[in-house]
Amino acid sequence: MPTPRSVSNIKSNLLRPALTSHFEVEIPIPQDAAILSSVLGGQQEKLNLSCSEVSLPGSQLTTLELTSDRTGVTEKHAYRRMFDDRIDLTFYVDAENYLPIRFFETWIGYIVNENSPEFGALDRKSSNYFYRSKYPDEYIAQQGLIVRKFERDYKQSLEYEFIRTFPLAISSMPVSYESSSLLKCTVSMSYVRYVINNLVGENPDSNAGRPRTETTAGIPQQAANNSANALRRRTPRERDINARGTFDPRFDR
After folding, report:
1. Is residue 100 part of a domain?
2. CA-CA 20 to 30 A from 222: which of 19, 31, 99, 134?
3. What is the spatial distance between Cα 128 and Cα 141, in angstroms, rounded to a whole number?
4. How many domains would you assign to the chain?
5. Which helix (H) or strand (E) covers residue 54, if one does?
6. Domain end residue (candidates: 181, 202, 223)
């Protein structure tokens, strides 16, 4: 039977949707990349505010298909979580210093040692010029790339934090003599995974001063690890009984 609902009930549940225009971004800097700090020149906030567009990340579960357990039934069992391989950020380019372009071009140049004193004597215009990349830990920002989605009253928010990030690509930026428009710089950032801070309605103030704990489906990571270890210690018979509620003789060996 359909559930009767009043107009006030519908209004209270549906007429306050989240808006896409309320968000902010924090751009990290690798710990030892002093050259990036010099390019910013104390304008970190300006770089953050110039981000005009970003996509909240997605992920999916990788599964195995089981086709022989039950006649006519195909099952999928999850075994891994896969994250998108990149996140795209679009920045307004300021006319004063072209800050986003300079910053990310310098970061990419830093990765391949373009500005290293060791290779400073080499002419980058030479046909014999070569690139030698740094060790990943030198150019990767371990943490700190944050996309924060909030609402106009600032009462609700979701904070996506990306782990081990660095710029993967800078998209081309067409310029033209035709009607002027805003120059934008789109950068693709690589990352290995993201975590969502203050998930499941946590009170942000309750975690102040405490290290963040990565979670799996809202469960503290340590507890998730303990559960996984306990599952691995079970015999095939115990795992089969736990999954099916019945015993399968095929696993009694």
Report:
1. yes
2. 31
3. 31
4. 2
5. strand 51-54
6. 202
| Containing structural domain, residue 249 | 213-253
Q: pLDDT tens across 152-210, in order?
A: 998 889 999 999 999 999 999 999 999 999 999 999 999 999 999 876 545 555 444 44
Place of tokens 């994250």: 83
Same domain, 178 and 223: no
| 237 in the same domain as 114 | no
d(CA 83, CA 195): 11
CB 25 within 8 A of CB 56: no
Q: For residue 59, give the H/E element and its range.
A: strand 59-66
Q: What is the dihedral of CA 49, 84, 191, 102, to 10 degrees?
A: -40
Q: Which residues contact 169 (CB under 8 A, 6 or more apart)?
A: 187, 188
Specify whether 109 is located in the same domain as 223.
no
Percentage of the chain surpassing pLDDT 90? 54
CA 92 to CA 23: how far, in whole Å? 15
Tens of pLDDT, residues 162-175: 999 999 999 999 99
Q: Kindly state the DSSP code that residue 2 receives in the 8-state scheme.
A: P
> What digits encode the pLDDT tens for the residues 81-124?
999 999 999 999 999 999 999 999 999 999 998 876 665 556 77
Q: Yes or no: say if 150 and 157 are a contact pair by the CB < 8 Å rule.
A: yes
One-letter amino acid for residue 126 of the chain: S
Greatest alpha-carbon pair distance for the chain in Å reads 79
The percent of residues above 70 in pLDDT, for the chain, comes to: 75
Ranges of beta strands (E only) in 67-190 are 75-83, 86-92, 145-150, 157-163, 166-170, 184-190
75 DSSP β-pair partners = 66
Q: pTM of the prediction?
A: 0.73
